[in-house]
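Hello,

Our lab assistant flagged a job as stuck in the queue for most of the afternoon. It eventually completed. Since we weren't sure the result was trustworthy after the delay, we are filing this so someone can double-check. Below is the sequence as submitted and the structure that was eventually returned. Let us know if re-running is recommended.
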Amino acid sequence: MATVHHWTGLEARALRLALRMSVRAFAEHLGVGVRTVSKWEKLLTATEPRPDTQAILDTALARADAAVHLRFEMNLSEAGRPTSGLNRRVTVTAPRAWDYESWTDDLDRVVITLSRQNFAFADTLLNRWLGRFEPLELDDKGMYLFARSTALLGDLRRDRGAVIGPLSAQHSYAAARSVFTQLDIPRRVAQLDLSLAVVAEMSDKLEIAARQYETLAVDDRLSRRDRARARLWVGTALSKDGNHDYAARVMLAATREFEDLGEVDDWSVAHQKLALAHRGAGQLDQALHFIDIARSTGMTESPMQRVRLDTAHGHILLSDPATRDDGLRVLDDAAKLAAEVGLSHQLRSIEGIRAMTEGAAGPR
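-- returned structure --
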């Protein structure tokens, strides 16, 4: 909304036009003489209403709805009166109505862009808004969009491999969680708790992550799908920690939940993770069975998912001396794609698998 620090005839005329009133109707609306309004219209910036009339104009603007404010700001802009800059008579203290619409549209674009791992463009879209407004200037709707933007910035940083530190996924998620807590939106807070548990897992704090996932798997603040994802990730953390058999049982329960929900992509990802759990347990036939299901049903439009599928497939092939060379070729392809799109965390995982293989079987 706009605030006028000092009215002249120009701002008064802009308000009249925004209210879509005639000179006579505007004078009656304010309780002043028609000749006074006519004087403002004629002299514009060369005349200033009296102090008591300044207050009347303040009240008229404050009581106007968002559409009037929008027209008022546009009228001033067209008249050559900027709403920003030094020594300004008018300031805009919050996003305008069209800003919220554009901001929402850009966040939808960020979600799509992140799914394609176009990190540079996603970063541009997010910082377009995060760098534009101070949180304290925003109303609840603006704070909500600010928190959503910050959470998506966390997703971007996580996918790029910046997990902990000042400019990390953890920092962004914590900031977004604080705002959603302030706004009292429990579902968003719980989703950020889930994202922070992922950060703990990626930081190799597997026990902590598993406990957080277990708590969130039965948290009513989350949707049924998010609770199933938390259950799946319990298994992921346990499998990474060497508890493969129990992890596979937990993952299987999550897989059935995804099937009931009709979540095809999640169901496919669950089979990928089941395959790795069985590989860890030494059950290579089962591992190959589940990875084949994942590869035949998984979403392959996303570079990240292709890298994850190929990494899991290569890891399983490396576990059998007879398919070791095939596994290395699959990992090479995954590493090349990860490097191309900037998936540094996945690239480190691939290098770690290669290092373990070379340590067990000698240099490549």
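-- support follow-up --
The delay was a queue issue, not a problem with the job. The result is valid. The CA atoms of residues 119 and 156 lie 7 Å apart. The two ends are 65 Å apart (CA to CA).
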